[in-house]
Amino acid sequence: MISKIKPMKYLALITLFFVVACQQPKETKIDEDKLGFIDADLDSDETNFKMKADFNVNKPAAGNTIERAFENAPPMIPHTTTGFFPIKMDNNICLSCHMPDKVKESGAREISKTHFQSWRPDLKEEGGKYSNPDNSKVFVKKMDELNNAYFHCSQCHVPQANVTINIENLFTREFRETFGIKESDLKEKVNEGIN
């Protein structure tokens, strides 16, 4: 005959179950140096990659314009950037060809007019404190000079390289307007999606 479990034993079993079920494993930390796809010291001359990146070697003005990766994406650099870096506020070789007064002579693409503007939220001041209201639009102020927020070109505009990687790209490009493949309309759409 099956004996009945006494209430105290029943309560002890339930308590044991919850103690075991609620045990949290110790937090596992991953060393920041171990993150990424390759286990190699990228700063070492000893590191041997099977294939090094084959960066574009075309001289400026000889490269072909690269279609944008997505709508309003910054244009990519279609020529070599050897000797261009580091870019500094007072030493930026890109400006020697891409400034509006230089493009006729150089044949380069002109720096966007958006780079001669300050794009900031329209902040509200109250009692000496500034806040960004939920429905704030972007306040655009025209400038006579290049906005120094844009001096470091390679933060957005990047040189291209031919590489073979074993990672499938599932990204699909979509453009609302066909001109968006080669041009940007960010200036007109900057407030899009802001209520």
Helix content percent band: 10-25%
Number of strands: 6
Strand order of the largest sheet: 1-6
- How much of the sequence is in beta strands? 5-15%
Residue-averaged pLDDT: 79
Ends apart, CA distance between termini = 73 Å
Look at the structure and give the CATH class: Mainly Alpha
The helix-and-strand class reads little secondary structure
- Spell the H/E element sequence: HEHHEEEEEH
Spans with pLDDT under 50 lasting ≥5 residues?
none
Q: What's the tally of helices?
A: 4
Q: Tell me the name of the CATH homologous superfamily.
A: Flavocytochrome C3, Chain A
- Name the shape in a single word: extended
Question: Can you summarize the main beta sheet?
Answer: 2 strands, antiparallel
CATH topology: Flavocytochrome C3, Chain A, domain 2
CATH architecture: Orthogonal Bundle
Total domain modules? 1
Rg for CA atoms: 28 Å
Keywords: Electron transport, Heme, Iron, Metal-binding, Periplasm, Signal, Transport
Protein name: Periplasmic nitrate reductase, electron transfer subunit
GO molecular function: metal ion binding
Subcellular location: Periplasm
